[in-house]
Design brief:
Length: about 90
């Protein structure tokens, strides 16, 4: 008998945005960094549009891309395979 796995895409995306918001808050809003003295990082939640730049404020588009494609994505992808493996074992 073949096992079937069902994925709720809405829940996955919502959880991803919640995790991104948590990382953003941790590294940009609550950070004690002295480097960006004149720039104020901010978030607008919930994420309800397709344009991420409407919800996460960065100094420029390169910084936004670096956060989502390098910092956040790689951290998320390291954790994700562990959850998938757990689903496949059950």
């Amino acid at each position: 008998m073949m096992k079937q796995v069902y994925i709720n895409i809405t829940g996955v995306l919502r959880d991803t945005f919640a995790k991104a918001a948590s990382e953003y808050r941790k590294y940009y809003i609550e950070s004690d960094s002295e480097d960006e003295e004149s720039f104020e990082y901010d978030m607008v939640l919930p994420v309800n549009t397709n344009d991420i730049s409407n919800h996460f404020k960065f100094q420029d588009e390169d910084e936004l891309k670096y956060f989502f494609f390098i910092e956040f994505l790689w951290k998320y992808l390291v954790i994700l395979p562990q959850h998938i493996w757990g689903l496949l074992k059950t």
